[in-house]
Predict the 3D structure of the following.
Amino acid sequence: MSRLNVRIHPAGWVLLAVLLLFTPTREALALVGALVWHETGHVAALCGLGARRVNIELTPFGGMIDAQDMEKWSPGKQAAAALSGVAASAAASLLCLWFAPRTAFWYAFWCAHTSLALLNCLPLWPLDGARALAALAARLGMQRAFCRVMRLAAYAFSVSMVGLGLYGAWHGHVNLSLFLLGPYLCYAASQATLGGQVRRLLNVHDALPPPGALYPVACSACTGDPDAAAMTRLLTRTAPGRMHVLCVLDEQTGRLRGTMTQCELAQRLFAGDSSKPGIGTPQA
């Protein structure tokens, strides 16, 4: 049984008020209905794939969905969850095109569904298209580098949209969507990245290989006891399917004092436990 938590971002309430005050009712209802339908497609897919907890934050230009333990899913399941919203919007667009009566409301409803489907196909983090490509990159072992590139692309695209809005305003054509959509993409990209880092920290213990299995090991080194910032940076950069070992060196001699696994780093970080084997005193 999946648990669903829904939250509306404060900016979402502001946009809803603006829509009701300055936008024809049919267009406001069409936009809100298309957004709800898009997120319903995601929720249905996540629940069908076995997500235990689904969190939704509705923002002015879309919803941000986070499912517990989704990072542990296979790349195929992650891609299916990402593309379910696009599929739902595309299906609704086709149904409106084929069966809806030729009225102003249904035209606005069709435009809203079509816009959501096309927008979310863009390879910009954290839109659905970028998440599907990230699942493919995970299968190829390139997920971390790919997500970094997509995040930077989202920031660049956001700045470009604001710049285009300023250019249009300079020539007397004001498009508020450009000023609002750009900052939203920056916010969504940063929040999705932060959420992923927090989940990786909390799920460090679940990353242990099963008994008898072999995992590749990455190794880092530091002099003296690592601080919280260094441990957090190391844990959030650990690639899926790879263990990490930190070698602690003596500050004076440079000799090895001890080693810490990523599980020990997480325990030290969250519990403040500094009594780790091989860390307290230099080795003879």
Notes: The longest helix spans residues 143-170. Residues 274-284 have pLDDT under 50 and may be disordered. The beta strands are 3-8, 53-59, 62-67, 217-223, 243-249, 256-261. Residues 125 and 148 are 9 Å apart (CA to CA).
